[in-house]
Amino acid sequence: MLYRTHPFKNLIFYSKSFLSTLRSSDVIIKRSENGKAKPQIDELVFGKFFSDHMLVCDFNEDKWQKPEILPFQDFNLSPAVTSLHYAIQCFEGMKAYKTVDNDVRLFRPHLNIARMQRTADKLTLPEFDANEFLELLKQFLRIDSDWVPDSRAASLYIRPTFISTDPVIGVKPPSSARLFVIAGPVGPYYEQKGTELFKSVRLMADPQYVRAWEGGIGAFKAGGNYAPTLSIQKVAASKGCQQVLWLYGSDRQMTEAGTMNFFVYWMNEDGEKELITAPLESGLILPGITRQSVLDLAREWGEFKVTERMVTMPEFMKAIEEKRVIEAFGSGTACMICPIDSILYNEEIVDVPTMTTGAELSKRLFSEITAIQTGQVDHPWSMSIYS
Known about the structure:
The chain has helices at 82-86, 109-122, 130-143, 230-238, 289-301, 313-321, 360-373, and strands at 28-29, 53-60, 63-64, 68-71, 89-91, 94-98, 104-107, 155-164, 177-186, 193-194, 199-205, 243-248, 253-257, 260-267, 273-277, 305-308, 325-332, 336-345, 348-351, 382-384.
């Protein structure tokens, strides 16, 4: 699907009662009798620990069943479910943050839910009411609110997931599905170099590896986009890199960095300071919520040019040689802002001056977004789970 407009503009946000019988008022709550021990902040490994409960919403017989908040547990599913065979599944990544006044807040959750609706539609999964799902999510988080770490170095990672549950072998749109949410406390996503809160990574850029292509599903948060990248990630790790810089086309367009959106801050050839990232129109780029937040903040500041267009590797290398590159960084929910200090390209290390120049823009974005997320500043992007 090629985008003519930004997918967050005029995005369908299904909240009409006739689309769904998913209702937060119908939720059945079964609390865990024995809460799990919570890890210390310095013990956190991303994705290893999970909170006491989970939210489960089943769709079958042409309607949503009563949602349930249950003790965290394994699923009992047929080995024939089509999500296991044909990757009819999608997910989201969100975080909840403990604020300075002991509140728990979400960051732009409507955008995550809208993106999941869009991906679900692509995969022919059932429609669901966005506002009802958000209310269910907040109920779940209120129950497990004591799992939100009280630390700027950690947060509660939230994983909404939507899978087909038809127990049948055959490629066809599903008639049954499960929408569920699990969560757990997390620290930094990448093993990186640098201080506790702000660490840099090295990327491997090799044009033989491609993450997405025009007309594909690279712009959707479907599970099938991720498994094919794991072997390439192993190649990158074997060469001392933390992630892959995905190149595309004969001109070697710089698209994404691992699971992050990719940004360059430089002095362009017209002598202007410019923040630049790949556009969404081609369908190659996942429309990240942090990406959009970076663009929104930078445009609000009005201090430098902000552009959405492709940058090619030769163009970037020319700017490096001419010492016009100031910073490069990735953005995403898991890492938020991740500075890039070097790129392995053509078997040579290309030093990127992000950290040597002070990473001032990366740090500023990190600081401002963190202040919004943790309630240090009042902002409409931040939503209390108690509201």
